[in-house]
């Protein structure tokens, strides 16, 4: 019967969409079938620790096996990671309890996150260890480590390293100093405040050299004139 009905569908029309258009399958049943396809054909792959793959060019699309529904790649990856069983996620591969993370973007993600993952995004800090983060969220430390691993794979957070954090902080502080000079603000208070806070703006324990500030001011003025 399905084969006969499929003959009335377009040659490049997903069978699921065609059957729904003819009233032979409900949207709920089609969505359930789509979830089953994801579970068996995609999500199970995330439990594999190693494997090989290859791309085959010019393979015809299997329209007779398609529902016509779709899901974003990032959302599919997140859902797959969330469904992994605990025994399939070895603890040795998780971030350490005393590690720290920073949020890579302030923009809201366009895919669904769990309540714990939202909490981590809102409270994660380069100066806060995962043990302290778990206490602040009232969550189990192991689950926080799992969630951080998922968010890191999606690029929403990134692990902190001493030199990296210092370089990022120094860059942000230099940008603040540059903006002050470009806007005609006296750079001395800004420089003193930043020099006392960020070691990267100091020269062998001392404040920023006046010659550096002068060269920076000259450069910024030249850019404004152009």
Alpha-beta classification: mainly alpha
Order of helices and strands: HHHHEHHHEHHH
The figure for the number of domains is: 3
Helix count equals 10
Q: How far apart are the first and last residues' alpha carbons, in Å?
A: 73 Å
Integer-rounded radius of gyration: 27 Å
Strands side by side in the biggest sheet = 1-2
Largest sheet: 2 strands, antiparallel
How does this model look, in words?
The chain has 226 residues and is an all-alpha fold. It has three domains: 1-42, no CATH class; 86-159; 162-225. The chain has ten helices and two strands. The protein has helices at residues 2-6, 15-21, 27-41, 73-83, 115-123, 130-137, 141-153, 162-182, 187-197, 210-225; strands spanning 101-103, 157-159. It has a two-stranded antiparallel sheet. Helix 8 runs antiparallel to helix 9 (187-197).
Short précis:
This protein is mostly helical and 226 residues long.
Keywords:
226 residues, mainly alpha, 3 domains, 2 strands, 51% helix, 3% strand
